[in-house]
Design a protein that fits this description.
alpha+beta, 6 helices, 9 strands
Amino acid sequence: MRVYLPCTFPALTRAVEVGELGPAPLTGYAVTPALTEWYASGDTEELEYVALTEAARASLRMLAADHADGVEAASRRLVVVAEVPDGALSIGSDLEERARVRVAEPVPMAKVAAVHVDDLYAVPDIQAAIAALPAADAGDDDARFTLDGAEAHELMWFATQEIADLIQ
C-alpha cells in the first residue's frame, strides 16, 4: 500500500544514513477503507491527495515539536511516500483520522517512491503556522487562519535520486 509518512529534514537525513525510516511503529496516512467510504465521490488520485495533506499536517506538528525541543530544522513540511506491505500496516476505523495508519516495522529507503517538500517561499507561512499551533488547538480562529495559510502551499515532488540534494 502507498503510505504518506510525515517527516522532517533531520529525520530524513538520519533515514538516509541508516537506510530506513524508523524506529517503528510509524504513523502514516494512506487511502484506507474509512477514507474511501467518507470520500465516496473521489477517485484514487483525490484520495491520495487527502492522505498527503494529512501527512503534511502531521509534518507541521513534527516541526513544531522539533522547534520546541531546540532542534535546528528547516521550516518546511516534508512527506515521504513509500510502498509498505499490507501486512506491516494496521488500519483503524476511527472516523476522526480516516487516513491514518500505523506501520509496524521500519521502512527501508529502497521502498521510498518520492518525497514532497515545501518550497522555500513557504517558509515564512510555515514558521507562522508553527507559532500559531497552540492557539489554533485552543480554538483561536485567527490562529486557525494562519494554519490555513500554511496549508495553502502545495508541496513540491522530488524523485528518490534527488533526496541527497535535498538534505545537503
